[in-house]
């Protein structure tokens, strides 16, 4: 905590200041836009961008993460509070803060219990499918704001403004950096400057509203934005806690997943180390802070953090500078912000979420593992058809289902001896010798509840094809753990083999596994012996037979 | 399907007839009792014991499984339909049939999609905790029926009858078989005869009600039981389908888990082979049949199947005989059944579910793996505090959580060469030689989304302690699969090592893994080489350095 402050060097300052400035300029349109996605008054988006990043800077472990409003979390917030309160109402604000408080508390609790491993509950294809599905939902939701009316109708002045803004944003995203470079701007500066296009388009929209009578023609704006800093807003309506509990849990989980995946891809570029349990604490505290200052659930955003990173952020000081600038903006007159036309804001949202449509993983998975393409598609479809919350559940179920499915087909090899050596190899891949009274199987997986049935079934299957076997030797080189369920299955196998007069022998059991097994009855009742190596086992069992 | 009928031999018949008779005698009190647990008219329990076992006999793969009403499934049914319809009402019956139809359809679908691996979603400790928690809930729920009033009150005549029945049942369970043996009955017959105690106690209760005026004193009975066979009852009230969908899914899952665990423990005793996908089909069809004949969700019951097995059942013919006998019982005058006193029925339920309190696994887990004791306790508590449906979710979450948690700490060993040999071993366990410019790590786990972060972290950690390493060799002997997420993580590691000027080499990659990797970009961009063996890798990297 504040490790970075202790070792702060002056040469880091320039980068931090420039990043802080750039992200602040980005945050004003983004914060207001994502508050709109969440169905909240625009100013809530700015509130959620002030205290949360400051708190995250104190507890989090990423140097360049930018914590604040994020599109998908805003969508989830809207899904939860939409049915409970009208969009933009005071009640919606209170509920959003309560939701942030619950999510924050869940994250803090998980952090204290050191449950950072929860980040591993989603596979990458599932995460990507979830993100793409959510991005499409958000983009589609914004269409009617962009066009000023529900499809198939449109409000011509709004639509003209929205579509123009959309085109400007898409073109600037594609070509502005190149154009600025050709005009002689240094490459790095040009890339950053291009990121400020949304702010410029928004300013253009405000100027247009101020100088023309578009408002009278029915183009909607964000409306009054109250000045001043957010008040301490301890949510009061206790009647609404219960329906928020389960969604709060889900949102906390996604906050963590989104933030970790953003932070990881940046940490990798600088060989920084992320501590997942610190991230839980940092994000949890940031969400509690958001709740206490009238905000809504926040997380680390990959797009914004990447800009922060590219603009030179060296330490969380950059985020502190962003927060300070936003606080100043709120204390200055905010009348101009109230003229921000909603179609323009919708255009910035659509362009931002279309940036989440990263489909590279689909190509990789198509070549490498078609099952992952299926998981991607099912998660994406789950979000589109069943909604974003059900999408999370579908995603977890698919990740876990894939895991259990893969576990249910463990690799087991029949081994034979390479003639004249002490080496034993898979008989399917090597010319190895087997003996009819001896079946040697190597189990290439840890034994646990998810694969014990499959292992037992495979063993029975091999015993059926090697009907003359009197001894079964299990080679345990690749088994690093045996859980209680698998221990039971092994005991049952042992008893079954005993009844059939077949010896069960274990060879090359790893030290830690053996230490564990000594506390169980399996070893005491084993209908055979423990051997240090497969070769010793086979020699011994052969000699025993010859003597008999 | 009907494989057993084709190979039927006459000498199997005696066992099947005796088992069919015994289970029919057991089914009358059990079926009515479990209908009571589900909040349904008692006759529904008999209906659910006729067509379902016949249909299961056609499609299922277990020879001795007795499919019909089961305590925990009845409890789950009650939890779902209780809030929607008054106990014992006609609507409750319709909803229960709809629930059976949904569960049956889900099971059939899973069977057609060959999703038998779903049985592996619960670890044994979690399954045991779930069963124990449910048994306690059922026993506690029956207390007020046993005592004739809500605690702390009691209705003296009912309580006297209930407690007497309870004592008789507990004593006969404990001592009756021994007593009969001492009276000269053969051991096997005595064990079976003792299982008929519930039927005798129930008959005693009926006689008591018929001959005394206990009914006038307020002892409640099951009331009129309509005679005749069940009608085809296609559920009609479409308004209630939606709230039944998700519970139907959960119940289907538990039906499958309960039945598989019962069938497995019996199949093991006779070396029979269960096919999980056939079980899904068999159970699914049985539940659809139950729905169509006015029944409720059914599954294989361990206690009843064990009696079936012990009474000599050789093939599903035993179940067909049971079904035929029950159908006859319904066609005979059923007036006597209407006198069955509820306190006695409650006593049979309590004794039956207390038989589910199998705590042996706790002792094993306590000695072997304390984490599993925790999982047991959390699931049991989840059922007791949050209810049986939430208990399933808690159980799955805990099983999966344990899995991901274990996966997040993969075993990785630093290898060194045993001097003068080609063998490489864990330096912590063997006196093996390492070289400062070379770091050799053996990864003892399949690489997938659940452990890739942990693997990457561990590699970074080892690189930090071996700061002079210029080459990293990953020994892949134990890696049988690399999923898409892990492929990404490996590519990121490769790029990161490239930037730092460290070579990444892979040794002893298994054939199937290598085949897969050839479809990926990782091999093309690998910042190092593939080696057949660790020894070749080390020799080559050493020579390369000497030449340089």
TrEMBL record, chains A, B:
SUPFAM superfamilies: SpoIIaa-like. Coiled coil: none annotated. The keyword Cytoplasm does not apply. The keyword Transmembrane helix applies. Its main location: membrane. InterPro entries: SLC26A/SulP_dom (IPR011547), SLC26A/SulP_fam (IPR001902), STAS_dom (IPR002645), STAS_dom_sf (IPR036513). It comes from the Bacteria. It is found in: Membrane. CDD domains: STAS_SulP_like_sulfate_transporter. The chain crosses the membrane at residues 12-28, 34-59, 66-85, 91-113, 125-147, 153-171, 192-211, 248-268, 280-299, 311-332, 339-362, 374-399. It is a multi-pass membrane protein. Pfam families: STAS, Sulfate_transp. GO terms for cellular component: membrane. Residues 428-548 form the STAS domain. Keywords: Membrane, Transmembrane, Transmembrane helix. One of its GO terms (biological process) is transmembrane transport. This is Sulfate permease.
